Amino acid sequence: RAWELEGRPLRMAVNLSGQQISTDGLVGVVRGALERTGLSPRLLELEITEGHVLKRVEHCIDTLRALKALGVTLAIDDFGTGHSSLSYLKRLPVDRLKIDRSFVEGVPADHDDTAIVATILAMARNLGLAVIAEGVETEAQLRHLSAAHCDEYQGYLLGRPLPAEAIGARLA
User: Fold this and answer.
1) DSSP helix/strand/coil, 70
2) pLDDT tens by residue, 2-22
3) Contact 90, 127 (CB under 8 A)
4) Rounded alpha-carbon distances, angstroms, from residue 33 to 18, 27, 41, 60, 83
5) CB 135 within 8 A of CB 114
6) Of 79, 140, 143, 148, which is most buried with the most CB atoms under 10 A?
7) CB 78 within 8 Å of CB 71
8) Using CA atoms, how far apart are residues 109 and 125, in angstroms rounded to an integer?
């Protein structure tokens, strides 16, 4: 919230566990946290993995719709590694897909990884979803993903995880 007040609104991504996404009170917990902190809902991104949704599909879809109604951003993390069906993808009210690093690591040298990433990017564009590539560690990966119109990148090439204090100093 402090960064937002300083005019540097940064989106914070939070991974949800399978237990959390299946909990009946999750929407109330998120709503309460937003109210207590005063954080703009658009700056909170909640990440789920494909496998967590499949355990209680209808409940998860209802929960995700309620979370989306709060104004938070929803993302599927580690996309491509779960056992999901594409039919679920079109039903989930998500905004973003995060391509798992296992596919990104072979780009652009490995033909199969490059083809999978291109397919995910095309599918996401057609579904109106933004895409984040996880595990970007080389300039060649970044150049290829940029040329392929990937929306965002995450990985050690761009910066290692930092505590909040260090992020504030880096932004100054």
Assistant:
1) helix
2) 888 888 888 999 999 988 998
3) yes
4) 19, 10, 10, 20, 31
5) no
6) 79
7) no
8) 23
Rounded to two decimals, what is the model's pTM?
0.92
Distance CA 76, CA 46 (A): 9
Say which residue the tokens 């909170």 belong to: 44
Domains of the chain in start order, with CATH, are: 2-171 (3.20.20.450)
pLDDT tens-digit series, residues 128-170: 999 999 999 999 999 999 999 999 999 999 999 888 888 878 8
> In the chain, what is the straight-line distance between the N-terminal and C-terminal CA atoms, in Å?
16
CA 66 → CA 16, 24, 155, distances in Å?
A: 15, 11, 31
Residue type, 7: G
